[in-house]
Write a structure and sequence with these properties.
The protein has helices at residues 15-28, 43-54, 59-83, 94-104, 109-120, 135-144, 156-172, 186-198; strands at 4-9, 33-37, 87-91, 127-132, 177-181. The protein is globular, with a radius of gyration of 16 Å. It has a single domain, classed as Rossmann fold. 36% of the residues are buried. The longest helix has 25 residues, at 59-83. With 200 residues, the chain is of the alpha/beta class. The structure holds thymidine-5'-diphosphate (TYD). Residues 11, 16, 38-39, 66, 91-92, 96-97, 100-101, 151 line the site of thymidine-5'-diphosphate.
């Protein structure tokens, strides 16, 4: 049966490193897998991503564009794939909007919930892997990475609020969230992922 699986975490938590591992574990279990990302995943979504990552804008404009990209992504990619029996692995989804635009940018959660209902009704991931790491660690990792985008240039408090918002989502939706301690080594996380994926 196809599943909708999302990956979340603050910038620098290291989730991107594990995407190929997760996709391979799923394929090993007989799933056909489509890997995608937000913002992005469609031609229009990727254009919006360019704007979102590099152009300054009002926090509510940012929120609206995230959902505009998501509407397109659901329609063109996610829902058709699930309908064909394909498992979809998305690097970020709506939890990121609650974490970054509500937690980080302090847009009212109610406004985001309204957009969520508008764009996706009650559609939710089957499983959300939250890569959690202390902000001190993620910021050290980011400092070693390539040229930072508009989000990655934010200060420590911004990322602390994002981490707290993610943990509060995990607390609110325990049935779909799996928390991964992303301070661990890549090999240890890969083992943990193997256990999680084998149990779905
Ligand atoms: P990210 O997924 O971390 O990609 P990369 O590894 O290439 O940096 O970058 C996407 C950025 O977009 C990230 O900083 C989080 C942000 N974002 C939001 O603020 N809200 C959202 O709803 C989504 C999906 C992403």
């Amino acid at each position: 049966m196809s599943k909708f699986i999302t990956l979340e975490g603050v910038d620098g938590a290291g989730k991107s490193t594990h995407i190929p591992t997760i996709a391979n574990l799923l394929r090993g279990q007989g799933h056909e897998v489509l890997v995608t990302r937000e913002p992005g995943g469609t031609a229009l979504g990727e254009s919006l991503r360019e704007l979102l990552l590099h152009q300054s804008m009002h926090p509510e404009t940012e929120t609206l564009l995230m959902f505009a990209a998501r509407r397109e992504h659901l329609e063109q990619v996610i829902l058709p794939a699930l309908a064909r029996g394909v498992t979809v692995l998305s690097d970020r989804f709506t939890d990121a909007t609650f974490a970054y635009q509500h937690g980080g940018r302090e847009v009212a959660a109610d406004k985001i919930r309204q957009l969520e209902t508008w764009v996706q009704d009650d559609f939710q991931p089957d499983l959300t892997l939250l890569f959690d790491v202390p902000v001190e660690v993620s910021m050290q990792r980011l400092a070693r990475a390539r040229e930072p985008d508009r989000f990655e240039r934010e200060n420590r408090e911004f990322f602390e609020r994002i981490r707290a918002a993610y943990l509060s989502r995990a607390w609110d939706f325990p049935q779909r969230f799996q928390l991964i301690d992303a301070r661990k080594t890549v090999a240890d996380i890969a083992k943990e992922l193997e256990d999680i994926i084998s149990s779905i």
